[in-house]
Design goal:
By secondary structure, the protein is mostly helical. It has one domain. Helices cover 74% and strands 4% of the residues. The protein is built from seven helices and two strands; from the N terminus they run E-E-H-H-H-H-H-H-H. A two-stranded antiparallel ribbon has the order 1-2. Helix 2 packs across helix 3, helix 4 runs parallel beside helix 7 and helix 6 packs antiparallel against helix 7. The chain starts with 5 loop residues before the first strand and ends with a helix. InterPro entries: ATP_syn_F0_a_bact/chloroplast, ATP_synth_F0_asu, ATP_synth_F0_asu_AS, F0_ATP_A_sf.
């Protein structure tokens, strides 16, 4: 659920507990990654094995959608997945709320995906060729292409926000009504749903990026012909 009360202010800007939690997650991930990758070796220990497994699984998922550019997209998509998993599960910690249960956070993530889609598309196709696909197959479809870009970005933000917020709200209501005995299976449901929502958001981001880069292959095929 959203927490909008400011914990403190930096000038005119109010810093809410959601912002503090988000900063804490980013700082924790940064410190953890730095510590975990300081002493990598050819004979990996348990932590390195776990990290390699996460990277391999993420790379395999990306390869299933865009195999030619799996390594290139790996840092962005994997970071997105890891952050979303932790952010979605943060609501299980007492007195904390999942940042992704706040529409401002999910809107920021959706905007990041929106900008990344166009960056990858322009980087691989050139700005003229990339923008030309908005006029294909006819310039009359330009308004519909633009509406599609806006609506899918909004849907990306609202979908994640709605699912995580409703999940926390249901957990709170059940806890109030049924007490402390029932939430154990509900806890498992929360974990599963948090993982599923993180995976869906990351896969949609990957599919959108792949769609922006797809015209590159069409261009190559036309040149070969």
């Amino acid at each position: 659920m959203e927490t909008t009360t400011a914990a403190f202010y930096i000038g005119p800007f109010g810093i809410t507990s959601i912002v503090i939690t988000t900063w804490g997650i980013m700082l924790g991930l940064g410190v953890f990654c730095w510590l975990a990758t300081r002493n990598l070796s050819l004979e990996p220990g348990p932590m390195q094995t776990l990290l390699e497994g996460i990277v391999s699984a993420s790379e395999a998922a990306i390869q299933s959608v865009l195999p030619e550019h799996a390594r290139e997209l790996l840092p962005f998509i994997t970071t997105l997945w890891i952050y979303l998993v932790i952010a979605n599960l943060t609501g299980l910690i007492p007195l904390l709320h999942s940042p992704t249960g706040n529409l401002s956070v999910t809107a920021g993530l959706a905007l990041l995906v929106f900008l990344s889609v166009h960056w990858f598309g322009i980087y691989h196709n050139g700005i003229r060729h990339y923008l030309k696909h908005y006029l294909s197959p006819t310039p009359l479809l330009l308004p519909f292409h633009l509406i599609s870009e806006a609506t899918r970005t909004i849907a990306l933000a609202v979908r994640l926000f709605g699912n995580i917020m409703s999940l926390e709200l249901v957990a709170l209501l059940v806890l109030i009504v049924a007490g402390l005995l029932v939430p154990i299976p509900l806890l498992m449901l929360h974990i599963v749903e948090a993982l599923v929502q993180a995976y869906i958001f990351g896969m949609l981001a990957l599919i959108y990026v792949a769609g922006a880069m797809q015209s590159q292959y069409s261009k190559k095929e036309n040149n070969n012909e």
